[in-house]
Amino acid sequence: GIGGNATVYWMKVYWIKLLRFINTCGGTLKGQNGTIESPGFPYGYPNGANCTWVIVAEQTNRIHIVFQSFAVEEEYDFLSLYDGHPHPAHFRTRLTGFQIPPPVTSTGSIFSLRLTSDFAVSAHGFKMAYEVLMSSACGNPGVPPKGILNGTQFNIGNTIRYRCVTGYVLDGHPILTCVLNTGNMAVWDFPVPICRAENTCGGTLRGSSGIISSPEYLSDLSNAGECKWTVLADPGDTISLVFTDFQIEDKHGSLEIEGSEPPSIWLSGVNIPAPVISNNNWLRLHFVTDRNHLHKGFTLQYQGKTQSTNHTSVSR
Ligand SMILES: *[C@@H]1O[C@H](CO)[C@@H](O)[C@H](O)[C@H]1NC(C)=O
Ligand SMILES: *[C@@H]1O[C@H](CO)[C@@H](O)[C@H](O)[C@H]1NC(C)=O
Ligand SMILES: *[C@@H]1O[C@H](CO)[C@@H](O)[C@H](O)[C@H]1NC(C)=O
């Protein structure tokens, strides 16, 4: 009867809506601020998804994104970030897993995100807020795990301060100041520090040069562990690392270096790696080893390089 036809009609409308909901994702976003959610959030994104969002700001502005929720099936599904249009040349980093990533600021006026999922299992997805930053704003750099941030203003001249909860030590520079860089853009003068558990190895290294070595106890086959070092130079300077010893068995250990080629460099094997040069005034090293390794570890020398020629001619 008529009632039956109506039911069929509404079921069709429902299915068309559902299919559109599943198949449409991504898009181009403009405007001062907004939010982006993965399709189906928080009930899970579809399998085989390939969603691209492009955020476009006015030319001299940048884009700041802050994640509010993040759960993406680790190592199978990814959210890739691009500093510009979603082209391999603009690739910035790839996010996966179940931890809320730190805020990200674009280097230019276009920023893209691409969610890709495989053909099995999904997770609840992500939600983030974006905001267009004027060239005089640094944006909220976020709080590291186990960290506390004191400061609510993030514009040129503002200073913020970090500390760690009890049981954790701060690695890096505790005070960040929003300054103008040589490209006339507002940037934080140091990276966000990390909070390292008191009983783990690593530390903060400064000064014009020094040596970093994996600890002796981690060259013992029966010990597993990890260390994190932060190397800092003055704002505007860069840092280079030169390896003198290197033996990290593939699959049983690695040395990850952040702050050079994005998103990071992973080193393992028995060949002395090429020198590493920082993009800015910091590098962060993360050494991990399991209980079955047969390696010695590594030794390297770091050296700060002054960029301004004025400085080098004055010193010494
Ligand atoms: C966008 O900015 C306006 C004005 O500052 C604010 O009222 C609004 O809550 C913001 N929206 C989002 C999604 O952040
Ligand atoms: C996602 O779509 C873009 C273009 O729309 C394409 O270039 C890219 O290869 C796709 N990625 C995957 C993993 O299918
Ligand atoms: C935060 O900073 C302000 C100004 O520098 C200071 O007065 C205040 O004591 C700080 N608060 C904490 C909890 O560190």
Description:
This protein has 316 residues and is mostly beta strands. It has 3 domains: 28-133, Spermadhesin, CUB domain (Jelly Rolls), CATH 2.60.120.290; 135-197, Complement Module, domain 1 (Ribbon), CATH 2.10.70; 200-316, Jelly Rolls. Helices cover 9% and strands 43% of the residues. It contains 2 helices and 24 strands. The chain has helices spanning 2-23, 309-314; strands spanning 27-29, 33-37, 50-56, 62-71, 78-82, 91-95, 104-105, 110-116, 125-133, 147-150, 159-164, 168-171, 175-180, 186-188, 194-197, 201-205, 209-213, 225-232, 238-247, 253-258, 265-267, 276-277, 282-289, 297-305. Bound molecules: 2-acetamido-2-deoxy-beta-D-glucopyranose (3 copies).
Write a brief structural summary.
It comes from Oncorhynchus kisutch (Coho salmon). This protein has 316 residues and is mainly β.
Q: Please write the CATH class name of the largest domain.
A: Mainly Beta
Mean pLDDT: 88
* Class from secondary-structure proportions: mainly beta
Strand order of the largest sheet: 1-3-8-5-6
Beta-strand fraction estimate = 35-45%
Number of helices: 2
Rg, nearest Å: 23 Å
Fraction of residues in helix? under 10%
> What distance lies between the first and last C-alpha atoms, to the nearest angstrom?
97 Å
Overall geometric form: globular
CATH topology of the largest domain: Jelly Rolls
H and E string: HEEEEEEEEEEEEEEEEEEEEEEEEH
What oligomeric state is this? Answer: single chain
Within CATH, the superfamily of the largest domain carries the name Spermadhesin, CUB domain
Largest sheet: 5 strands, mixed
CATH architectural type of the largest domain: Sandwich
